[in-house]
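Data deposition worksheet. Section B asks for the primary sequence of the deposited chain exactly as it was used as input, without tags or linkers unless they were present during the calculation. Section C holds the resulting structure in token form. Section D is free text for depositor observations; keep each observation to a single sentence. Incomplete worksheets are returned to the depositor.
Section A, Depositor: J.P.
Section B:
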Amino acid sequence: MTMTTTTTDHPGDHGDPGGENLFAGLPEQDPAAMGRLRERLARDAMHEGVLDVAYRVLDTPAGPLLLAATEQGLVKVAYAVQDHQAVLRQLAELISPRVLNAPGRLDEAARQIDAYFAGRRKRFELPLDWRLSKGFRRDVLAHLPEIGYGRTESYAQVAVAAGSPRAVRAVGTACATNPLPLIVPCHRVVRSDGTPGRYAGGDAAKRLLLGLEAAA
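Section C:
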């Protein structure tokens, strides 16, 4: 069974990020049939062991989030400003071209993210696939979940915690290239003067996350 990246809509998810649609021949007025075909394709792909990366797009107060997972765990979270179509191409290049819109693998991640935005969850408990982060950047990301909900640390503080006090700029790069924002909370890293600083999901998204946690 040969598979390329496909991007079909899923009930409850945000729209199609772009790319080839395997169901283009179906009548547009029959979304139920499209849904059944999509689910069957995902089941067949998993059964035959040819689904390497599953993804879905989840609507959130911070905008649509692309969630992608391998068999090892969640491997990528991306905001709309990061260009979901480009992210899917990157996953196909870096991990495997066998990428499929198969929301079932992301159900638990979606539930936990929904609970976070509803104020019912302060820590994520999900298996993670870290293959997109290496070296010192990985050391930085490993520390970030230790920054408690509603708390922040400066880039300099994170550099010390990661074992390289002088690597403040490298901490900024690690946060900017975090493949799992929100889940690995780089939004809790701020400038030394307390201002939020930049964020891969956009400045507004960072302010929203910090405000949500501070309010709780």
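Section D:
DSSP finds seven helices and six strands in the chain.
The longest strand covers residues 53-58.
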